[in-house]
Amino acid sequence: MRAFAKAALLIAHVHFVRSLTGKRLVFCVLLAHLPALAGFVASGISSRVGPANLAANLGWMMLLQIAIPLVALIGGSAVVAEEIEDRTITYLFTRPVPRPALLIGRFVATAFLLAVVAASAVFFLLLACERARGKGGTFDAHFAATLYEAAVLGVVAYSALFAALGAFFKHPMILGVAYACAIEGFLANLPGKNQSLTIQYYLRSLIADEAAPAWRKVEGFGSAAFASVERAHIVLAAIVVVALCLGAWRLARRQFELTS
Amino acid sequence: MSTLVEARNLGRFYGDVVGVSDVTVSIPTGVVGLLGPNGAGKSTFLKLLVGELRPSRGSIQVLGHEPFGNRDLYERLGFCPQQDALYAEMTGFEFVAFLTRLAGYSRSDAEVRAVRALERVSLSDAAHQKTRGYSKGMRQRVKIAQAIAHEPELIVLDEPMTGLDPIARRDVVRLFTELAGEGASIVLSSHVLHEVEALTKDIVLLHRGRLLAQGAVHEVRALLSSHPRKIEIKARESRRLARALLAVEGVSSVKLSRDGHVLLETSDIARFERDFAAIAVAERAGIESYEAIDAGLEAVFDYLVEASA
User: Fold this and answer.
1) What is the pTM of this model?
2) Do B87 and A257 touch (CB under 8 A)?
3) Following CA atoms B188, B189, B193, B197 in sequence, which dihedral angle do they give, to the nearest 10 degrees?
């Protein structure tokens, strides 16, 4: 266990440093901040929407539903797949370290970076929406806190899922896009209990608190029945743990046929 | 001499494509060259050897271990893969130090070993440059450095000479000789046959995924009794000598080259060498040189490939 933790930390550190200068992170930052950009534009040109309503609409529809899954897809699917595509996985797999340390180490670094990106995206989104002068009032600290929480937990949960896909499949990005569109984009917006099969549902459950009435004004949001915050936390944590365990299990057994 | 690698009926298939098939081989400690043309199965064999792949059939043991995912083995093994892949954002030093730390060394130990390994591959000057700026030869050398930095008992190198200029190749051959002298065993694949021959006489020949031959070069040559040997003789009276040599039992062809040398093939080299001296004297041929032009490893390989075709 000590060897595992030591190797995972070392791999996490190296992956973190490498990621800081990588194009992938730049792309994730740009994508994650698109809702904030939309917020700046909307708050500048419209005088009908207030800060809370604008933040709720952009927070749900653009940030949680589109930006967060896609950012997690870009970062998470690369956790294992990048080493395979770059054909560098050989170096790690011929060292006396447990193979799952690669997945866990790189996931920890990726999740940390993406969580910072997601938090930054929320910060700038709220900053942009605060400029809105329309009706509906402004948002309070609780509103902001729930959005931060949903964005950060969302990006971590999605990343774990996509990282696990990378341990199972050769092209996790393609499968991830299909999953993000078909399951998270489509199923999550169908009425009925099927929603509870999506990560979106639990993220929405985190922000659907009565204390944040602005969320209830978002179209389609108010009529849905959500899980409790406690249950949402448990399910999201379970998704991360199960995804990583499955990914680690697969990685320990998988062969990689790298081309020369 | 103990055994490094023990493969029994080893097979590895990629769908319908044969990587290696039914290879039974025992590789002793020391320096061993794995030879074969492109597609012979060398890289697949080495990937099975280092546990990157699992056998589809049969078994392989390396230093007494089944290699796939075996951490005990990886403590004793260094691998230089064929693929030209490095972490582009890292310097050569960071790359080697990182992988050495993963081999179980502390940061300070790993850094000392990385410096030493980079020195040994003559890459000290470029050690702190990003690997993305490295030439092909530098990339090859940094790959070798990571394979030797933790001083493994067994070093496995897949086409390590690729991309090296002649001076670097000479230096690398010297390095491998030094490492072998220090007690490390080396298994390397190559199609640069004369360089393998400069490094070791122990070879394993693969062709189309199958074991063609194994042993010291002279042992492999002994397998060639049914194949003609080529000899080139330079003589003052080459035409007369050629005519006389045609009568020797086992000689299948005699030709005169444009520059007047006698080129002949014989299936019984021992008999030919016994009779040659007497004929040369009798014919007053004025022998200036005598050379078995297929004495090199390359010729052995060509013969064996032809034989298996």
Assistant:
1) 0.82
2) no
3) 20
